[in-house]
Amino acid sequence: MSPKELVQKEVDKTVTEMEEVLEKKVVKPTSSSNDVILAKTIVVTSGKGGVGKTTSTAAIGTGLAKKGHKTVIIDFDVGLRNLDLIMGCERRVVYDFVNVIRKESNLKQALIKDKRTENLYILPASQTKDKDALTLEGVREVLVELGKEFEYIICDSPAGIEKGAMMALYFADIAIVVTNPEVSSVRDSDRILGILQSKSQKAERGERVIEHLLLTRYSPKRVADGEMLSVEDVNDILAIPLLGVIPESPAVLKASNQGIPVILDLEADAGRAYEDAVARLLGEEVEHRFLHEEKKGFLKRLFGG
Amino acid sequence: MSEECFQLKGSLIPQTVLELYHYSPDIFAQHLAEKVKQAPLFFQQTPVIVSLEKLKNSETVIDFQELRNLCQEFGLIPIAVKGGSDILAEAAEACGFATMPAALPKMEKNAKLEKSVKRDLFPNSRLVETNPANNLENSLDKKGNPQSQIKNVSRESNDTPHAKQPAHLEDSAKKSAVKPEKVAEKPAENESTEKMPVVRPSKLVTTPVRSGQQIYAKDSDLVVVSQVSPGAEVIADGNIHIYGPLRGRALAGVKGDLNVRIFCRSLEAELVSIAGQYMLNEDLRNHHWGEPVQVFIKDGVLHIDPL
């Protein structure tokens, strides 16, 4: 008999004993809703689109894996998948998240092992279905199964506050809210924070999701000129702990077109900023770099940098 | 996060009230038929609340089942019964009507309250059903609506002059305390329901109130020890205290209490409202914008003073 069957037999035996003692019927607990996701579930969300969620998911997932933590990143943007492109594994996608939920394939067949980084796996989204294919129970089952093998599960949320985004944030323990220092992005992030603290599973249980702010596309020069919101302005409105400030960088575009997460670009300031962010996520105290304009030397200005 | 089947919301809906002065099935049917002729389109399955507050004789026996049948014949759907004696209310409940306590007399927008009017709250508004004429003469005459209704009553009535009211009704409320209704530009037959006041401890919120969130402190004050983001709404029947910047909307005294206030550390609001009188962002900017303020109503006008 398999361990599962053995356990079930024991449970049934105990239940019958209890029923005799109590002289009433005992309601047997259903397995799925009580299953706990053993891994740390992180959702990378924002409300607004195009702020850098997928870029950040790729970078942070890679960063965690590089530090030795077995990590899986899941693309929740059904129908508009792009995590596989950013990771450079689009040619190896056979089965996807929806296939796994519908039991058309098992998890092992759908997971893609990253070629560059040890410990990193990707679960791509479906391109042909739409978000109605996602069900809460289906997502829960997949996350529980992943939790048995992985230390960190990162969910790349789609933009918006509709079903796809809700599915991605529902099971989260930790939320990384990606925000551009720009008024509409800040307002949308505020909205998603409200939703996180009211509609997530943790909120339903009376607990809080741990919130982090990731400020992306930051330009110290424009802040100094008064064109862009500063870190203080954003903090005034959102009031959540700052995970990191990622400077605006041409390296990001280059990295996505090449299919390499920007954190692996050792020269890019954005890459280094993501490394700092990963360190802070793991509990280290790292000073924030890239907050102030870098004074460029003559040669640097001549040759770019 | 399973999809919710429904949501219970508080709302103010304009509602037609059928004020019953006296009742006998034949006369009722006859008058109703006449009204139908005057305004046939009105009688298209219109929901009505049957008010027993103006019943001349509180000893009237009403067969509520019969009343309902008559109404329905003429296209009216009675959904609830308002006011009336306990006996009547019980009879109505037995026939499946919802029951509501009687309302206190209405006040017109910006009416000046006389000094004798205090904010006492009736413990049980049904039992102290006053003679409407007495009450209004003491407090709010000179204004159109309430008084004229009484005049109608006395003209229509065949006998009972005001003085002959039963003794127990006279005893009621020497201080004719008036609980002001929600000040709004709604037509006369609309009334908001007054529930029996219950004192509850203040609602305390310590986390930021985020955009899109709505916090409602029912029958009490609301204290927010954090910011209120743009797009958020904080609502209370009592006062609202915000120990942080108010950037969203704050609505205090939503059940009509004109004596509540809104306090905040920094006025950056989209809208502030007390008992329905509101001020928008554009006007607020001229009143101590960005400073700690208190908002209140004085002489029927919204005031914003620095703290």
Can you describe this structure in just a few lines?
Chain A has 305 residues and is α/β, with parallel strands linked by helices. Chain A contains 15 helices and eight strands. In chain B, the strands form three sheets. A six-stranded mixed beta sheet of chain B has the order 5-7-9-11-14-15, with no helix packed on it.
Structure, explained:
The complex is a heterodimer of chains A (305) and B (307). Chain A has 305 residues and is an alpha/beta fold. Chain A has 15 helices and 8 strands. Chain A has an 8-stranded mixed sheet with strand order 3-4-2-5-1-6-7-8, with helices on both faces. In chain A, strand 3 (112-113) and strand 4 form a beta hairpin. Mean pLDDT of chain A is 89; it is low at 27-32. Chain B is 20% helix and 23% strand. Residues 106-193 of chain B have low confidence and may be disordered. Chain B is of the alpha/beta class and 307 residues long. The radius of gyration of chain B is 22 Å and the shape is elongated. At the A-B interface, helix 9 of A face loops of B.
Secondary structure tally, helices of chain A = 15
Measured between the Cα atoms of the first and last residue of chain A, the distance is 64 Å
Low-confidence stretches of chain A: 27-32
Bin the strand percentage of chain A: 5-15%
Beta-strand segment tally of chain A: 8
C-alpha end-to-end distance of chain B = 43 Å
Strand order of the largest sheet of chain A: 3-4-2-5-1-6-7-8
Oligomer: heterodimer
- Mean pLDDT level of chain B: 74
Q: Poorly predicted ranges of chain B (pLDDT <50, ≥5 residues)? A: 106-193
**Helix proportion of chain A:** 40-55%
Computed CA radius of gyration of chain A, to the nearest angstrom: 22 Å
Biggest interface, CB < 8 A:
A-B, 17 and 16 residues
Mean pLDDT of chain A: 89
Q: Considering DSSP H and I runs of 4 or more, what fraction of the residues of chain B is helical? A: 10-25%
* Basic shape of chain B: elongated
